[in-house]
Write a structure and sequence with these properties.
By secondary structure, the protein is mainly α. The chain is built from three helices and no strands. It is elongated, with a radius of gyration of 26 Å.
Length: 104
């Protein structure tokens, strides 16, 4: 009895190898996307905190607890939420008008 490989067997093996390669590529792309999202978030947080410290340098020496209290009592108010709701509604309208391009 000789050992031989059929054409179908080669094709199946080739397809299975291609599937493995595509699955690995998908995993790698997902990891790259997650890494980019983390970098974008870090960049956004740094820019926004820098802006707050520039506008309100008195917040720099505050402890984390003091800063949290400051934010809760000044920024996290009903008035601020109404302004934010208006801004996010504007952003959503712009995204709908240009096919969602603003949604990143």
């Amino acid at each position: 009895m000789g050992c031989y490989v059929t054409q179908d067997g080669l094709r199946r093996s080739s397809i299975e190898e291609e599937i493995k390669q595509l699955e690995n590529k998908k995993k790698r792309l997902i990891q790259e996307q997650k890494e980019q999202e983390r970098k974008d978030r870090t960049n956004r947080l740094c820019k926004r905190m820098g802006f707050i410290e520039k506008l309100l340098p008195g917040t720099i020496p505050l402890t984390e607890e003091q800063f949290k209290t400051f934010v809760e009592q000044t920024i996290a108010t009903d008035h601020s939420r109404r302004i934010l709701d208006g801004l996010t509604a504007q952003t959503a309208q712009k995204g709908g008008a240009d096919g969602g391009a603003a949604q990143g």
